[in-house]
Amino acid sequence: MRIHKYLMFHKDFRIKLYPLCGLILAFLLCISDYLFADISTLERIAEAERDVSYVGIRLKTFISSRGTRTFEEYVIHKPGDTSYRKLVSEVGGRQSLGATQDRTEGRRDDRRRGRDENNRDDRRREQERNRWRQVKSPFPKKEIQLIAKNYNLKHSPADEKIADYDIDILIISPKFADRPTKHIFFARDNGVILRVEDLDAEGVLREMSVYTRISFNPETVERKWKKFQEEIQPEPQRSYSISLTEAEKILETEPIQPAYLPPGFQLQDIHNIRGRKNTIHLLYTDVLLGLSIFETTENHRHHGSRREEESEVIDGTSVRKRQRGPTHTFSWTSADIHFFLFGAMPAAEMQKVVESIIHKAKKK
């Protein structure tokens, strides 16, 4: 009798459980389809930026504690080639963020540093004016899955138009704290990016670009390409990708990689620096943010103002650190290798990377 009741109970339980399992499975399938749909949207955008011809005028705005600057640039792209852009003009000049912030940040050193940075920006912009520069296509294939791992993707239609084209929006929001958000507005018909908004971890807009005019007409693109082709000269590569084995030969010792990386970061590439005998560059990324580590066995000469630096002893090693805007820079020497680390991550996260390298170097 007990066995019979036991079997009857479990039979009824299984019958009641089947609909629940079905609902859970259906929910998971819906979520899976939703996620893959938004990944496919990003893949479509990346493919369009590689394969669609276009030429246009774009406004780029940069926002920092020093103010806001907007530039107009010409952009041209042909399938199978890198995009090229040329700075045309500055729109409206630099705009201050207001007297209140100026008073807050108005200490003498801050004003001097601001002037120095503004002068560097002006010199760089003047060099770029009327000069074509290569622009790599965004979101290489190998980074699509990494960005889906580290960021949420949400695709939705939009009611507005940009440069007379209907658009959709892809919002890339972080799964981890202290990461940026990116809004991509792209042409509904072909997937080409028409506007980008980059927001920092606090949700403050830091950079934006938007096309005011753009043409996808192949004849127009070809005509403009022929017109500008003589001006467009391939830039000499300042660095090139190498393997870990090649990096060890260049450095003449085994490179030291960090034992700790912020969540979601992975090694993206290793570069040899042209013109530097014993220097390598390791690039780590979560796709939207990057960390750079330079390692060199060359004699190191200090650059920059020591007044802008702080010094700290980490695990018995003297480390110099400096902050410029959202970017933190650390430099030190361990195991006869000079290290330079910089990135726009919180200082506490950057320091963990430094500590892991120093600890690893002591074991070498």
Give an overview in words:
The radius of gyration is 26 Å and the shape is globular. The longest helix is centred in the first third of the chain and has 50 residues, at 2-51. It has 364 residues and is an alpha+beta fold. It has helices spanning 2-51, 99-104, 108-128, 141-150, 218-228, 244-251, 347-363, and strands spanning 54-64, 67-77, 83-95, 132-135, 151-162, 165-174, 181-187, 193-199, 205-215, 239-241, 266-273, 279-285, 290-296, 310-314, 317-324, 327-334, 337-343. The protein has two domains: 50-228, outer membrane lipoprotein receptor (LolB), chain A (Clam), CATH 2.50.20; 239-363, 3-Layer(aba) Sandwich (Protein Transport Mog1p, Chain A), CATH 3.40.1000. A nine-stranded antiparallel β-sheet has the order 4-3-2-1-9-8-7-6-5. Strands 10-11-12-13-17-16-15-14 form an eight-stranded antiparallel β-sheet. A hairpin with a 2-residue loop joins strand 5 and strand 6.
How do the strands and helices of this protein lay out in sequence?
Blueprint lengths: L1 H50 L2 E11 L2 E11 L5 E13 L3 H6 L3 H21 L3 E4 L5 H10 E12 L2 E10 L6 E7 L5 E7 L5 E11 L2 H11 L10 E3 L2 H8 L14 E8 L5 E7 L4 E7 L13 E5 L2 E8 L2 E8 L2 E7 L3 H17 L1
Antiparallel strand pairs: 1-2, 1-9, 2-3, 3-4, 5-6, 6-7, 7-8, 8-9, 10-11, 11-12, 12-13, 13-17, 14-15, 15-16, 16-17
Helix pairs in contact: 1-4
